[in-house]
């Protein structure tokens, strides 16, 4: 297969990079327009508001902030904040891409929570560690956002490659003394030079076939780096972090699917976190393939329920208020 054609991307004669047809296939959702969301715990349609907030003008980064309407807000006023990093292999999609926009809106209504979806820089125009640097900027933004509401429960979450960005953001947060209530890693995207069994079996994977996976890493990693680089291989990454730094992380929810090509790498991360003493809830046997929560309604409902349950349980003394509000 031609991975460029499969991903619908390519370089132009002038050296620029085009994500061909992405806007047509995955349209951008506008910010500022209220969205009515029907959550899984009842027939009530809740209104979610969104707006885009600059993160770093020089880098062109921003945060799309989703806030549920007053009917869903907790009486304490301390709505949890979920900092969210979308997927796309570091190369595709934005915070405004419809599947990720919709996912953030549903989470904002379901928990309920404020959801800050980070629009980080994409490769190959901005190779790694650009996205990790943008994650550190997002942590500093969170400090400012949370300063006006002491005690606000803060969570960091990422899907696919966004889970790997979220992991780096959580480390940056604890390094800076920002208290986190939890870290959510959904199908973290890792790889390595030596194929795992899951990767070797993914040549014709229906969502993330091996040639496309390899190309995404080739475009995302620093020039000349291979897939054993610390930005890609979790074993290399963990060796540079160390157990002492890992154990400062908050409770973690790690989600995986049975047919996800990176699943063996995800288990390496789970093992290292547990060995370091981090409280890890690993639910690695979800049905289906990579990113199924974006394509299948039943997978989306399962995913949103898992995240909602985790956030409510770790949000401290607000949890009973959220449970009561969910029945309104």
From TrEMBL:
Q: Name one Pfam family in it.
A: Abhydrolase_3
Where is each Alpha/beta hydrolase fold-3 domain found?
82-292
What InterPro entries does the database record attribute to this sequence? AB_hydrolase_3, AB_hydrolase_fold, Carboxylest/Gibb_receptor
List, in alphabetical order, the Gene Ontology terms for molecular function in this entry. hydrolase activity
At the top level of its lineage, which domain of life is listed? Eukaryota
Protein name listed in UniProt: Alpha/beta hydrolase fold-3 domain-containing protein
Q: Which organism is it from?
A: Hordeum vulgare subsp. vulgare (Domesticated barley)
């Amino acid at each position: 297969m031609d991975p460029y054609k499969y991903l619908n991307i390519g370089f132009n004669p002038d050296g620029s990079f085009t994500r061909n047809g992405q806007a047509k296939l995955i349209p951008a959702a506008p910010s500022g327009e209220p969205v009515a969301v029907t959550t899984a715990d009842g027939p009530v349609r809740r209104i979610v508001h969104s707006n885009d907030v600059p993160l770093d003008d020089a880098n062109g980064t921003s945060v799309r902030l989703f806030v549920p309407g007053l009917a869903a807000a907790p009486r304490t006023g301390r709505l949890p904040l979920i900092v969210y990093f979308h997927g796309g292999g570091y190369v595709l999609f934005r915070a405004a891409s419809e599947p990720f926009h919709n996912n953030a809106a549903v989470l904002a209504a379901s928990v309920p929570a404020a959801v800050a979806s980070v629009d980080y820089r994409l490769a190959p125009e901005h190779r790694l560690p650009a996205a990790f640097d943008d994650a550190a900027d997002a942590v500093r933004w969170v400090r400012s956002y949370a300063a006006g509401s002491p005690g606000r429960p803060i969570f960091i979450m990422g899907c696919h490659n966004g889970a790997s960005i979220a992991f780096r953001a959580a480390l940056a947060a604890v390094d800076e003394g920002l208290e986190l209530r939890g870290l959510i890693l959904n199908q973290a995207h890792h790889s390595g030079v030596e194929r795992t069994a899951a990767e070797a079996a993914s040549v014709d994977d229906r969502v993330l076939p091996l040639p496309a996976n390899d190309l995404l890493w080739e475009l995302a990693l620093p020039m000349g780096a291979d897939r054993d680089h610390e930005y890609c291989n979790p074993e290399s990454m963990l060796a540079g972090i160390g157990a002492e730094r890992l154990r400062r992380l908050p409770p973690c929810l790690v989600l995986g699917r049975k047919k996800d090509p990176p699943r063996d790498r995800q288990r390496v991360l789970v093992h290292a976190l547990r060995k370091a003493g981090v409280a890890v809830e690993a639910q690695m046997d979800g049905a289906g393939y990579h990113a199924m929560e974006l394509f299948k309604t039943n997978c989306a409902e399962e995913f949103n329920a898992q995240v909602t349950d985790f956030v409510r349980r770790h949000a401290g003394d607000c949890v009973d208020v959220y449970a009561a509000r969910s029945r309104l």
